Amino acid sequence: MAVGSASREISEKYDRFARWYDWLEGIPNLFGLSRLRRVLLRRVSGNVLEIAVGTGKNLSYYPPDCRIVALDVSSEMLKVAQSREAKRSMHVSFLVADAEALPFPDESFDTVVSSLSTCTFPNPVAALGEMARVSRPEGRVLLLEHGRSDRERLGRWQDRHEDQFAKPLGCHWNREPLDMVRKAGLAVTSARRFFFGIVHQIEAAPRSSS
C-alpha cells in the first residue's frame, strides 16, 4: 500500500499509541459517546466499509448480517481491532490502507462508516471524497465526528489550543465536519450536534438524488 508522508506520520503516531487508545477514549464514552455509536450504526446495511476503524469500538454495534471491510492506516490499531473481533462471530476483513486513496472500485459499498477520524486525515475533504466514490448511488455515508463547537467561546478556546492538541495525535479538533462533507460533494441528509456543539452525527448521500 502506498501511503503519503503525512499519512505515514499519522500511522506512526497511532502505532505507538494503540495500546493506550481505548483508555483515552473511555473518557468521552462516560458522556454518552457509546450511545451515539449505537444509534448511528442502526442505519447500517449490506456491504460495509469502515474507514479508520481504530481499535474496533464500532464492531459490537453492527447488525449481525453485515459484511464489513475495516481499514486503518495504523497496523497496530488494527491488531487491537482484530483481537476484539475474534471474540465475536462477524464477517469482518481487516486491511491497512490510506483513507485518501481507497483500494476499491467505484460504487463498491452499501454503507461507509467513519467515526472520530476526519480530525486526523491530512486532507479530510479528499478522504470524504473517496468515501463518496466507493459508495453505491443508493448508499449512505455515516459519520460520528467531533469538530469546532458552535458555542463561540468554546470554539475560540479550541482554536487557541489546536496546535497543542494536534501535536501528540494529529487530531485537529477545531475542523468543521459539515463544511468538509459538503466540499467533498456529499449531500447531507441528516445532521445533529451533541456535547456543547462539538460532536456531529451525520448521514450523507454519495450524490444528490436530483
Concise synopsis of the structure shown:
This protein has 7 helices and 7 strands; from the N terminus they run H-H-E-E-H-E-E-H-E-H-H-H-E-E.
What would your notes on this structure say?
The chain is an alpha/beta fold and 210 residues long. The chain has one domain (5-205): Vaccinia Virus protein VP39 (Rossmann fold). The chain has helices spanning 5-29, 33-41, 75-85, 124-134, 152-160, 162-169, 177-183; strands at 47-51, 67-72, 91-96, 109-115, 135-146, 187-194, 199-205. The longest helix is centred in the first third of the chain and has 25 residues, at 5-29. 40% of the residues are buried.
Helix and strand arrangement:
Layout: H1 5-29, H2 33-41, E1 47-51, E2 67-72, H3 75-85, E3 91-96, E4 109-115, H4 124-134, E5 135-146, H5 152-160, H6 162-169, H7 177-183, E6 187-194, E7 199-205
Helix pairs in contact: 1-3
Regarding CATH, which class? Alpha Beta
Number of domains: 1
Helix content: 25-40%
CATH level-3 fold name: Rossmann fold
Q: SSE order, as H and E?
A: HHEEHEEHEHHHEE
Give the uncertain stretches in residue-range form.
none
Q: Whole-Å distance between the termini? A: 36 Å
Would you count the extended β strands for me?
7
Give the count of helical stretches.
7
The side-by-side strand order for the widest beta sheet comes to 3-2-1-4-5-7-6
Radius of gyration from the alpha-carbon trace, in angstroms: 16 Å
CATH architecture level-2 label: 3-Layer(aba) Sandwich
User: What is the overall silhouette?
Assistant: globular
Give the class from helix and strand content and strand pairing: alpha/beta
Strand content: 15-25%
Mean pLDDT: 84
Largest sheet: 7 strands, mixed
CATH homologous superfamily?
Vaccinia Virus protein VP39
